[in-house]
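Long-time lurker, first post. I've been practising inverse folding by hand and with some scripts of my own, and I keep getting stuck on stretches where the C-alpha cells seem ambiguous. Below is the full C-alpha cell string for one chain I'm working on. Before anyone asks, I'm not after the true native sequence, just a reasonable design that respects the backbone. If someone could post their per-position residues I'd love to compare against what I wrote down in my notebook.
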C-alpha cells in the first residue's frame, strides 16, 4: 500500500530586498533549488508570488514534508510565516510538478481573505491556486 500523503499550505511575507529585477532573480534562485530538492524528495506543489506575499502548497510523504517545512519556515527570505494547513490528504491536488510557479496576471477578488473559519480559508486559497495553475496550463506557449 502507498504511504500516506500530507499537504502543507502556508502564507508568508516576502523579505527579499532590492529592485523588482533583483527580487525576481532571487525568487528564480529559490525555485531552482526548491525544484531540485523537491524532485529528489518526492514532493510536489506550487508557489504563488503575488506582490509582497508568498503562498505555497507542498505535498508528499510525512518525513520529506516535515524536513522541507523545517528548512522553509527558517528561511530568512520570508517572514510572518503563517501555517494554514498541515493535513493528511487522500491524493495529491498539486501532483504535476516539483514546484509550479504561479504568476497570476492580475489580483482577483478571490485572492482577498474570505470570511469563515481557518479550514474554509485554506480551502479557498487551494481552490484559487488550482485555478491559476489550470489557467497557466491552458494558455498557449
Ligand atoms: C518562499 C520560499 C519557498 C521555498 N520552497 C522550497 C521548497 O519547496 N523546497 C525546498 O527544498 N526549499 C524551498 N525553499 C528554500 C529553502 O528554504 C532552503 O533555502 C533551501 O532548501 C536550502 O537548500 P540549499 O541548501 O540546497 O540551498 C523555499 C524558500 C522560500 C523563501
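-- Answer (accepted) --
I ran through it position by position. Result:
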Amino acid at each position: 500500500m502507498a504511504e500516506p500523503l500530507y499537504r502543507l499550505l502556508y502564507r508568508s511575507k516576502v523579505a527579499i530586498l532590492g529592485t523588482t529585477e533583483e527580487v525576481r532573480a532571487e525568487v528564480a534562485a529559490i525555485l531552482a533549488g526548491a525544484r531540485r530538492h523537491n524532485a529528489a524528495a518526492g514532493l510536489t506543489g506550487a508557489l504563488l508570488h503575488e506582490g509582497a506575499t508568498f503562498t505555497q502548497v507542498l505535498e508528499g510523504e510525512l518525513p520529506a514534508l516535515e524536513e522541507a517545512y523545517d528548512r522553509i519556515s527558517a528561511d530568512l527570505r520570508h517572514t510572518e510565516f503563517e501555517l494554514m494547513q498541515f493535513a493528511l490528504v487522500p491524493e495529491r491536488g498539486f501532483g504535476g510538478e516539483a514546484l509550479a510557479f504561479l504568476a497570476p496576471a492580475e489580483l482577483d477578488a478571490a485572492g482577498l481573505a474570505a470570511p469563515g473559519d481557518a479550514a474554509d480559508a485554506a480551502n479557498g486559497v487551494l481552490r484559487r491556486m488550482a485555478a491559476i495553475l489550470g489557467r497557466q496550463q491552458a494558455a498557449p506557449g
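A couple of notes from the structure itself: The domain at 5-138 is CATH 3.30.70.100 (Alpha-Beta Plaits). The helical segments are 20-41, 62-73, 118-138. Happy to go over any region you disagree with.
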